[in-house]
Structures are given as structure tokens and as C-alpha cells.
Automatic annotation (TrEMBL), chain A:
The keyword Signal applies. Keywords: Signal. Pfam families: SBP_bac_5. The keyword Nucleotidyltransferase does not apply. Residues 81-429 form the Solute-binding protein family domain. Coiled coil: none annotated. SUPFAM superfamilies: Periplasmic binding protein-like II. This is ABC-type transport system substrate-binding protein. PANTHER family: D,D-DIPEPTIDE-BINDING PERIPLASMIC PROTEIN DDPA-RELATED, PERIPLASMIC BINDING COMPONENT OF ABC TRANSPORTER. It comes from the Bacteria. It comes from Geomicrobium sediminis. Gene3D superfamilies: Dipeptide-binding Protein, Domain 1, Dipeptide-binding Protein, Domain 3, Periplasmic binding protein-like II.
TrEMBL record, chain B:
This is Oligopeptide/dipeptide ABC transporter ATP-binding protein. Keywords: ATP-binding, Cell membrane, Membrane, Nucleotide-binding, Transport. Belongs to the ABC transporter superfamily. Residues 8-260 form the ABC transporter domain. The keyword 4Fe-4S does not apply. It comes from the Bacteria. It is a peripheral membrane protein. PANTHER family: DIPEPTIDE TRANSPORT ATP-BINDING PROTEIN DPPD (PTHR43297:SF2), OLIGOPEPTIDE TRANSPORT ATP-BINDING PROTEIN APPD (PTHR43297). The keyword ATP-binding applies. One of its GO terms (molecular function) is ATP binding.
Automatic annotation (TrEMBL), chain C:
Signal peptide: none annotated. It comes from the Bacteria. This is Peptide/nickel transport system permease protein. Belongs to the binding-protein-dependent transport system permease family. SUPFAM superfamilies: MetI-like (SSF161098). It comes from Geomicrobium sediminis.
Length: 510, 339, 315
């Protein structure tokens, strides 16, 4: 026993002393002969936990997964579906979706991406162990032939197509999974434009161009390196010194130091992630509709956006930004302090204290301060409660010990997913499990509206009108501006509304 | 008293310390005496009387905050040590004049081997190589009665007793064969039995090497045993200077008289003997106009209060008093030593 | 004799490791927030949660969980990250290697400059360098390290372009690259230490200069410089050794801010990430290795102390 202790102790010391002796750069060494212009270095805010798309839940993972995994369906910058590994699709009836696959696609390990592979992946995504819930409607997957697959649904679901542009549509090599399912977690094998060369957790990910990529001429860069830099100022500094080529999510107030120079291109986009107050409607005092309505109508989003984003973002009175195809033009300003105050007075609830859990970040503290100030005007006392991220999630979603939580809805490729998750009484995000029959029947109708986007948008307009102006089920606040910057020789960037950039399109001009 | 060649002469030494916001402290005021070659002079007085400041001023080792009046002079080989450049003074220190201190516990660097510390002065002054310096050191500590010198040189101070350390200090001080050794209370911190041994060693080596010693002490027993001549200081001044026999036989200054006649307590420090004289020493920040001893004197008169007595020749001895214990000489016969 | 001391120290380390790991283990489990919930996110149905908790061993009692961890740790297996599945010891050691290099460089800079400033200011009291030393020791403690980091960055990376703004290169891969990458962060990190060392060394030197043995040294005819070098430094450096030992621990814990600003993937980042994600397995590994490192450093401090001061003997 004692000997074992000392052995451990000895090992630990020895390893500690020789620590950095073992370099992890050997694999990267293979990429060092690449010319400078053939390598694109991106600074990104977060690392991922696993390369297995079915075992992950963070919205920030996608940008790191996309280079490796092509999805069955792709999307354009307006979040409308585009061909991916499936060249086309068709609803044979309300509950049967047929996918016609691209010919001649192989995975990084050389295995063929065919109907069998798709079925395997979709079944895996809908299995018990999978974290993916987007395909709950799928009952079975039928392989018609090598290049045709049919999804049989239990009920119509208009979000299925774009769900195949998300995690569920990321195709992983069946061979690789069957060989070693754990290995996929650390080194994914997909059919995307890049192969993973090295993953130095928390530090950087190195991808090398996949030579047999189906799309001839893509990707244009030889090496894609994504460095993990959680601090936005650090990302900006690194770009300024030329250590990286491309920086994501930069702070609105600070980018002026880059915009002065001809060396950098700044692109501002708008995206679906929305900052909002989650409300637990089963919990006092938010079980009082008057309090919720006062919150909804008592916050001046334009002023809020001006104060925290220097006007570069957008005030939110609904979960969709104005450039999105389902945006409701009429829900553009709910701010009405007189009405808010009147509602409170009528219910005799002036002076109600609302506790809001929020992250202990400077940004969030600022927002809470502004809310406290604005809501004090109409008679609501805001009690901000700073909680770091996991504690906040636990307290609000799990223990339900705080009635309100200021956080972010990261958005989904299809608006149906967003609407269901925010409004449906069975949704995890609807902590109070509160909805109305009308809303739920509208949601079901939208799910069944598979071939008529205009009609779908109308239904969402109606749900948002009821859910926000009448029921105030949640309180949207702002859309953060999505600001990226790159050195001017970097080409190919296209922002998308999902706010999850696809780095594989970046390249440098020689 | 045979006439010998003068080695060191202190003339009119006045030292003071001044701190901003505080009145000037007159630490030494009018000190005059000389040391002859081969002579042991004892500098006696209670703590704070200025005897240590006097001793340290010879080597320029007083704190930087202590300054000297411009007329002060310490003559050594035709040079005024107080005016000497730092470089020249350093050549003197440990070479021509060396010093040992009161507390052997702290006088040696605890982190250095005895041998290293001993040879430092030799290597500094005598251009000796390390090996011969070490041999010299071995011989010297053998002479101060340390057995197994080779091994002891490799020891650290903490491995030696207090008496041994003082022997090391003595050996170290004498290693460069200086002309003058200043011993500042060399036995005060030691046990009585050890004291005698150390004094014995000092006396032996003094004769062997013909070195002069300035022995600073407040212990009259030590004075009687060691000194040829005694200089008594009180409150920054020399009040009496005499041959050791003459002094013990008949002190002239009432202070000296007080010292000799007070009864020593059995276990007491000799300091207590002096303080047995009633009254307190005046503060160096506010010395009286007249005699500094006035407050405590049994023989005081109005004159003592108004006029400061100067050190004057009094039948072959020097005393600074208007009313010496033996009134052998009339006032007008006195010759002022101080000008 | 030394071996006996070593054994004794090791025997003393063992219960300390037990206690610290157990305390940390219990504290970790007390942090609000459930790793299973963090992993599952919106898919956190009660069923899924229970299943995952069982899979991670979180459904068992604290003692059982600790025992399981301990028995694996004793055979050198610190487990796998709850999230990424990577080996905890691999992750922790590679991150610790980076932080260790960073902190050591910071300490070396702090020590060399701190002691030099103190010594020079002692040799030339009242000179500009003395004033400078005083300024450094005040500024070093007054300026928070993140501010200094940003200042250094703005000047030496962004304006002058002399040094990189981010990243870390290991000493063993590329010594020059290492120096370039580590210089700014280690100065930012070490400034506090430099201030402390300057101050401690200065006051220690002043104290030493009031001792009798310094007077003895002067009485032998040594110059101020000789006295400082032969008798002052070694004696004055003793308290500084203690400062450095403590500083090591402090800086190990303080690297996270500097690591974030310079994007250095060190142990501080890993610790914060593990806490944020409730990656208990990883966090426990981080803490264990931190504790071991601190113990090793204390141990090294003691040995250096004994080398400098012959009075201290290990028996």
C-alpha cells in the first residue's frame, strides 16, 4: 500500500518534471511544409467535447464539426435548405421523406457514403443513447437503393429537412464507428472537406484537406487550423499581430481598432441566437400574467440594444431577427411603459420583486442594470442573482429554484424547432410547462405544413402574437451582432443566419 | 612611567548625531588621549558614555548618521584617520588596526565557515594565497588555545561555544599582525571563568606580538588586570586619565572615586556598580552648561554649575574637575590640555 | 541522514495527499450544478440523467465515489474526462507542463530582477536605481497582472510587433520560440513577485547590514561591495527563498488570467473549464497534480534552505 503511494508520488513528480518533454507536435509536423497562403488560421471561442455528433449538446460545436462532416442537407445564408450529401429530397406523402443521395461520396477512411451509411447514421441519431431529439418524428429509415433513402415519420414534421442540416445530418463513417466507437469521440471520420489531423484539447484543432472530397476544387486551403481563444480581446490581438487570419465573435465596442486599417475586413451579420429572459410560469410571481406582461411591455429593447451593442445588434420582440424569413413585421415594438404600468396597477402588483438569475459576466451585469432601471419605472423590482453557467442552468432548469433566467436561445436551423422548444408545454426549455391549447394546435399545424413556407410563417406570426403579447411566455431582449474580422487576403467567408460559420469555405489568395 | 613612542593620538574628538526633527545628540565631547606602542589602554565608563563611539570612530565604523566636528583629529602614523579616504581607511582596517567586539555570538557570520572568515583579512591585505592564508589561520587559532585547528576551521560558528568564538575573533583580529587592537567589551558576554581565560590569552599575545590594545570596558576588575593606563569617560567626555596604579590608589575625579568605592553586588553586572552613584546621567541632547557630573557629584559648588571643567594636568595626571578628590595643585598651576 | 529526512517527508506527504484530495473531492461534489445536466443539456430527461449519472458513478455515495477514484489513482489511473473522454493524466500533465514552464520563467525573472534591484539599490542608496527599485516594488503590487498583461501586449505586440500576442511554444521544442512566447506573459505574471522579492530582499539586506558580523566584515577592511557579496546576499536571501516558495504556489493559482489573455493552454484554463463544466474527474486530477507540485516545491525550498544555512540540519 505504502509502496504504491510512493510509486504514484514518484511517477507524478517524474512526469511533472519531464512534462513538456513529450511534445504533441509530431503529427502537426506533417503539415509544416505547407505554404503560408495554403493555411488558414481561425480563432474561435470554444473547444468542443466530442467529435461524435450524436453525443454533444453545445451549439458552439457545429463550426468545429462542419469541416469534418458534410450534412445530408445544407443551408444558405438565409437558412433555407440547400443540397448537401442529398442532392434532392421529396415528400412522397405527409409522413414519407425521400432523400436522393449524391453519387461517389467517400468517407475519410475510404468507405462509401451510400444509403446504408445514411440509414446507419440516422438510426444511430434516433437511438436511445443519442442526445439528438430533432428526429423524434422518425419512425423508421428505409434503404431503397444505394442512393435512395426514405424516412418514415410517425407524424408530419416540417422541421425534418433542416434537422438534416444539423447534428442529425452529419454523416459519420460506419466502419470507423464499428471499429472503435470511442475513437470517434476524439477523432471523427466523416465525409467533409477536411480530415482531422490533431486535436489539442482546449488549444487548437488542425484539419487537413481531404483529397477525395466529392466537391471538386473544394476546399481551397490545404490546412485549416482552429485555435481556441475564449477571450474576445485575445482573438482581436492575435488577428492584429497576424498570428491568425480570421477571428470570430468580436466585441461590438472594440472593433474600431481593426476598422481603421486596410489590413482587415470586418463583416457584421445578423443571426438567430437571441438573448432572452426565460420565465418559469409555474413559479411565483411569474404565475401572474400581469407581471409577465409588464416585463414584456416594460422593456425598451431599442434603448437596451443601443446601450450594450452600440446599436450594432437588434432589439428583439420575437425570437426571430428582422432579416429572417419567418419574421413577423407587426411584432416590432411592444414597448409601452404606460400599458405595462396600468396592467400592474390593475392587478395591484406594483412593486413586485422578480428574481432573475444571470451569468456573472460584465455583459450580463450591464444588461441586468439596464433592466433594473427600466423596470423600476413601471413598478417592477429586479433582483439580479449572478450564477455561473452550470449553477444557473441547474437552478433554473433542474431545481427550478429561480423563477427567471437571463440566457440565450442559440437558435436552430428550422424555425419549427425553435417554436416548439420555446412554446410547447412538453419542451425542456418551457420550465413551467405552460402553454395554451391554441398555441399547441398551431404548432401541430405548422409541423404539418411541409410544403408551404408562407403559410408556416403566418402560423408562427400568430403563435408569437399570442405567446408574447397575450401570454408573455418568455421575454426576448436582443440579437447580438455577429461580428467577424479577417485579414484582407482571406476570401470565401459567407455569414449565415445560424451564427455558426462554416470555416471550410475560407482560403487565402496566393 | 617610561616614555614610549606614541601610536595613536585622539585630539579633541567631538561626535554628534542629528536626526531631522530631533535636537542634536552630542555623543562625544572633547575626548583627548593617546595610546603608546605596546601599551594597553583601558577606556572605562558606563554604557552610553561614548566609549564605543570613540572606539569605532578610530576605524570609521560608526553609523553614517554620526558626524564629527571639523577640529576633531585621530592621529595614526601622521595621518588623521577622520579625514582619510574610504579606500585608505579600508587598507588600515583589519591590517594595521583591527577590532574585536562584545558579543562573539553575533560577530561571526553564521553562514560561513570559520576558516573562510578568518582568512578574509589576510587575503584582502597581504596578497596571500588561500593555502598559506589557511596555514596562518591554523597557527593563529592554535595560539589562542583551540585544539584541532584544522577541523575547527571547517566548522561553522554555531558549532563553537561562546568562549571559543571569542578566541576565534581574537585570532582573526591578530592574524595580520596589527599595531593596534581595539577590543570593545571583549569579555562582557562571556561566563566569568571564560573571561579570565580570554584575558589571559589577550595579554599573552599582546606581549608576544607587541601590539597596543585599546580595551573598552566598564569592568574595573578587567581594567586592574589588563591595563597600563586608564581613560575614564563620563557623558561623552574624558574626565580622568591616569596610570593604572595611580588611579586605583587615588582617583582624582569624584566620578572615578564613586566607581571605585561603590560596593559591587555579588551577582551584579559591573554596570550596576556605577549606577550605584545616585542621580542620573544627563541626556546627550541637553547637556548642562557646567560640569556634566554636577547633578550626581558630592563635591559640587556653584562654579561647577556655571563653568565646564577642562581636562587639565594635575600632578602628572589629567583630570577634568574643579574640585578633585585630592586638592594637591592650585588652580593657577593647572595646565590646560585642551585648547 | 538525508535519506531519512526524505522518507519522513514522504510519509508526511501521504496523509496530506489523502486529506487534500478528499476535501477537494467533497467540495467538488458540493458545487451546485450537475455534470450530467451539463453534458445532456436540453436532452436531460429524468431517465437520461439517471442513466448518465450511473454511468459516471455520480449516483453512488461520496465515500464510494472517493474510494473508486482513489483506488484507480493509486495505480496511476486518474480516469477520463466526463466530457471529452480524454485521459485525465495526459491532459493534466501536458497542461501542467505549460504552466510550469510559464510560472518558472516568471519566478526566474522575478528573482533575478528583484534581487539585483535590491542589491544595487543597497550599494547605491539614494541613487536613481534605488528610487527605481522602490518604484518597481510599489508598482508591481499596485498594478493588477491583467492590466500589466494588456499594457505589455499593447506596446510590445500590437504597436511594436516584437513579440507574439498569443500562444505558447515549449522550451523543449524551440528554445527561442519559447522565450518569445513566454516573455510577456511571464513578466505580467512575475511582476508581483518581483516587487515582493525586491522589497523582501531590500529589507533583509538592511537588516543584515545592521548585524554585528557585517561590522566585523567592515573591520577587516572589506569594501561595501565585498561585504554585500561575501556576507550580505547569502544571509539576506534566506527569507527570500521562503518568499519564492510561497510565490510558486500563488502564481500557479494566478496563471489563469494571464493564460486567458495570451491564450496559453495551461493548467489554469483547464481548471476553470473543468469547474465551469463540472468535469469532476478532470478537476480532481488538476487539484491532485497541483497539490503534488506545491508539495514538491515546498520540499525543494527546504532543501535549498538547508544548503544555504548550515544551521539547519535534517534529522
Amino acid at each position: 500500500m505504502r509502496a504504491a503511494h510512493q510509486m504514484l508520488f514518484g511517477t507524478v513528480i517524474l512526469s511533472a518534471l519531464s512534462l513538456a518533454g513529450c511534445s504533441n507536435d509530431e503529427r502537426v509536423g506533417a503539415t509544416s511544409e505547407v505554404k503560408e497562403h495554403e493555411k488558414v488560421i481561425v480563432a474561435y471561442s470554444t473547444d468542443l467535447n466530442t467529435f461524435d455528433p450524436v453525443f454533444g449538446s453545445a451549439g458552439s460545436d457545429h463550426s468545429l464539426l462542419y469541416p469534418l462532416y458534410d450534412t445530408l442537407v445544407s443551408f444558405d445564408e438565409d437558412l433555407l435548405p440547400q443540397p448537401g450529401l442529398a442532392e434532392e429530397w421529396e415528400y412522397l406523402n405527409d409522413t414519407t421523406l425521400e432523400l436522393r443521395l449524391r453519387d461517389g461520396v467517400t468517407f475519410h477512411d475510404g468507405s462509401v457514403m451510400d444509403g446504408e451509411a445514411v440509414a446507419f447514421n440516422l438510426e444511430r441519431a434516433t437511438s436511445e443513447e443519442s442526445y439528438i431529439s430533432d428526429l423524434n418524428a422518425v419512425e423508421s429509415v428505409e434503404v431503397v437503393n444505394d442512393l435512395t433513402v426514405r424516412l418514415h415519420l410517425q407524424y408530419p414534421d416540417s422541421s425534418i429537412v433542416l434537422a438534416l442540416a444539423d447534428r442529425a445530418g452529419m454523416m459519420v463513417s460506419q466502419e470507423a464507428i464499428e471499429q472503435n466507437p470511442d475513437q470517434i469521440q476524439r477523432a471523427g471520420v466523416g465525409a467533409g472537406p477536411y480530415e482531422l489531423v490533431a486535436w489539442e484539447t482546449g488549444e487548437k484543432l488542425t484539419y487537413r484537406k481531404f483529397d477525395d472530397y466529392w466537391n471538386e476544387g473544394e476546399p481551397k486551403a490545404e490546412i485549416l487550423e482552429i485555435q481556441v481563444m475564449p477571450n474576445q480581446m485575445t482573438r482581436m490581438n492575435a488577428l492584429q499581430t497576424g498570428e491568425i487570419d480570421f477571428a470570430t465573435s468580436l466585441p461590438a465596442g472594440e472593433i474600431t481598432s481593426l476598422s481603421d486599417e486596410e489590413k482587415f475586413t470586418i463583416v457584421e451579420g445578423s443571426a438567430v441566437p437571441v438573448n432572452m429572459l426565460y420565465l418559469n410560469i409555474a413559479s411565483a410571481p411569474l404565475d401572474q400574467k400581469a407581471v409577465r406582461l409588464a416585463l414584456q411591455h416594460g422593456i425598451d429593447r431599442a434603448a437596451l440594444n443601443e446601450a450594450i451593442h452600440y446599436g450594432q445588434g437588434e432589439g428583439a420582440y420575437q425570437p426571430f431577427p428582422s432579416s429572417y424569413w419567418v419574421y413577423n413585421d407587426e411584432l416590432n415594438n411592444l414597448y409601452d411603459p404606460d400599458y405595462a404600468r396600468a396592467v400592474l396597477e390593475e392587478a395591484d402588483l406594483v412593486g413586485t420583486v422578480v428574481t432573475i438569475a444571470h451569468y456573472p459576466e460584465a455583459y450580463d451585469e450591464r444588461v441586468i442594470d439596464i433592466l433594473r432601471h427600466q423596470l423600476a419605472e413601471i413598478g417592477i423590482v429586479v433582483n439580479g442573482q449572478a450564477m455561473e453557467i452550470q449553477a444557473g442552468i441547474s437552478a433554473y432548469f433542474d431545481e427550478k429554484s429561480v423563477p427567471s433566467f437571463m440566457s440565450r436561445w442559440t437558435g436552430r436551423p428550422d424555425p419549427q424547432m425553435t417554436m416548439t422548444m420555446l412554446y410547447h408545454s412538453t419542451s425542456y426549455y418551457n420550465t413551467g410547462s405552460y402553454s395554451t391549447e391554441e398555441i399547441e394546435s398551431l404548432l401541430a399545424e405548422a409541423a404539418g405544413t411541409i410544403d408551404n413556407p408562407e403559410r408556416r410563417a403566418e402560423i408562427y406570426d400568430e403563435i408569437n402574437r399570442i405567446g408574447l403579447t397575450e401570454e408573455a411566455i418568455f421575454i426576448p431582449l436582443t440579437f447580438q451582432p455577429d461580428i467577424v474580422a479577417m485579414s484582407t487576403d482571406v476570401k470565401g467567408y459567407e455569414p449565415n443566419m445560424l451564427g455558426k460559420p462554416k470555416f471550410q469555405m475560407l482560403y487565402k489568395e496566393p | 612611567m617610561s616614555k614610549r613612542e606614541t601610536l595613536l593620538e585622539i585630539n579633541n574628538l567631538r561626535a554628534f548625531a542629528e536626526k531631522t526633527g530631533e535636537p542634536r545628540s552630542q555623543l562625544v565631547n572633547s575626548v583627548n588621549f593617546r595610546i603608546d606602542k605596546g601599551e594597553i589602554v583601558a577606556l572605562v565608563g558606563e554604557s552610553g558614555c561614548g566609549k564605543s563611539v570613540t572606539a569605532l570612530s578610530i576605524l570609521g565604523l560608526n553609523a553614517a548618521s554620526i558626524e564629527y566636528e571639523s577640529e576633531s583629529e585621530i592621529r595614526f602614523h601622521d595621518e588623521n584617520l577622520l579625514q582619510l579616504s574610504d579606500r585608505k581607511l579600508r587598507k588600515l582596517r583589519g591590517n594595521d588596526i583591527s577590532m574585536i567586539f562584545q558579543d562573539p555570538m553575533f560577530s561571526l557570520n553564521p553562514l560561513k565557515k570559520i576558516g573562510k572568515q578568518m582568512t578574509e583579512a589576510l587575503l584582502q591585505h597581504k596578497a596571500a594565497d588561500v593555502r598559506t592564508a589557511r596555514q596562518d589561520a591554523e597557527k593563529m587559532i592554535e595560539r589562542v588555545g583551540i585544539t584541532d585547528p584544522k577541523r575547527q576551521l571547517d566548522n561553522y560558528p554555531y558549532q563553537l561555544s561562546g568562549g571559543m568564538r571569542q578566541r576565534v575573533m581574537i585570532a582573526m583580529a591578530l592574524l595580520c599582525k596589527p599595531e593596534l587592537l581595539i577590543a570593545d567589551e571583549p569579555t562582557t558576554a562571556l561566563d566569568v571563568t571564560i573571561q579570565a581565560q580570554i584575558l589571559e590569552i589577550m595579554k599573552d599575545l599582546q606581549q608576544e606580538l607587541d601590539v597596543s590594545i585599546l580595551l573598552i570596558t566598564h569592568d574595573l576588575g578587567v581594567v586592574a588586570e589588563m591595563a597600563d593606563r586608564v581613560v575614564v569617560m563620563y557623558s561623552g567626555q574624558v574626565v580622568e586619565e591616569a596610570d593604572v596604579y595611580a588611579l586605583f590608589e587615588q582617583p582624582l575625579h569624584p566620578y572615578t572615586n564613586g566607581l571605585l568605592t561603590s560596593v559591587p553586588t555579588l551577582e551584579g553586572e559591573s554596570d550596576e556598580r556605577i549606577s550605584a552613584i545616585r542621580g542620573t546621567v544627563p541626556s546627550p541632547q541637553e547637556l548642562p552648561k557646567g560640569c556634566n557630573f554636577y547633578d550626581r557629584c558630592t563635591r559640587r559648588t556653584d562654579r561647577c554649575k556655571k563653568e565646564e571643567p577642562l581636562l587639565t594636568n594635575h600632578g602628572g595626571r589629567n583630570v577634568a574637575c574643579w574640585h578633585p578628590v585630592v586638592e594637591g595643585v592650585k588652580d593657577d598651576e593647572r595646565t590646560a590640555i585642551r585648547n | 541522514m538525508f535519506l531519512r529526512f526524505l522518507t519522513k517527508r514522504l510519509l508526511y506527504v501521504i496523509p496530506m495527499l489523502f486529506i487534500t484530495t478528499f476535501i477537494v473531492f467533497s467540495f467538488i461534489l458540493l458545487i451546485p450544478g450537475d455534470p450530467a445536466l451539463a453534458i445532456l443539456g436540453e436532452n436531460a430527461s429524468d431517465e437520461n440523467l439517471a442513466q448518465l449519472r450511473a454511468q459516471l458513478g455520480l449516483d453512488q455515495s461520496l465515500l464510494v465515489q472517493y474510494w473508486n477514484w482513489l483506488t484507480s489513482a493509486l495505480v496511476g489511473d486518474l480516469g477520463e474526462s466526463f466530457f471529452t473522454g480524454e485521459s485525465v493524466q495526459e491532459a493534466v500533465f501536458s497542461r501542467m507542463g505549460i504552466t510550469f514552464q510559464l510560472v518558472t520563467t516568471a519566478i526566474v525573472i522575478a528573482f533575478v530582477f528583484g534581487t539585483t534591484l535590491a542589491i544595487v539599490s543597497m550599494m547605491k542608496p539614494g541613487s536613481w536605481i534605488d528610487e527605481f527599485a522602490r518604484l518597481v516594488s510599489t508598482m508591481g503590487t499596485a498594478i493588477p497582472n491583467f492590466l500589466l498583461a494588456m499594457l505589455l501586449l499593447a506596446v510590445f505586440s500590437l504597436s511594436l510587433g516584437w513579440l507574439p500576442a498569443t500562444g505558447f511554444i515549449s522550451l523543449f521544442d524551440d528554445p527561442i520560440g519559447f522565450v518569445r512566447s513566454v516573455l510577456l506573459p511571464s513578466i505580467a505574471l512575475g511582476a508581483v513577485g518581483m516587487a515582493q522579492i525586491t522589497r523582501h530582499m531590500r529589507s533583509a539586506l538592511i537588516e543584515v547590514f545592521e548585524t554585528d558580523y557585517i561590522r566585523t566584515a567592515f573591520s577587516k577592511g572589506l569594501s561595501v561591495r565585498q561585504t554585500i557579496f561575501h556576507h550580505g546576499i547569502r544571509n539576506a536571501i534566506l527569507p527570500v527563498v521562503t518568499t519564492v516558495g510561497i510565490l510558486y504556489g500563488n502564481l500557479m493559482g494566478a496563471t489563469v488570467v494571464v493564460e486567458t489573455i495570451f491564450s496559453i493552454p495551461g493548467i489554469g484554463q483547464l481548471a476553470v473549464d473543468s469547474i465551469m463544466q463540472r468535469d469532476f474527474a478532470m478537476l480532481q486530477g488538476v487539484v491532485l497534480v497541483m497539490v503534488v507540485i506545491i508539495i514538491v516545491i515546498n520540499f525543494a525550498t527546504d532543501i535549498i534552505y538547508s544548503l544555504l544555512d548550515p544551521r539547519i540540519k535534517y534529522e
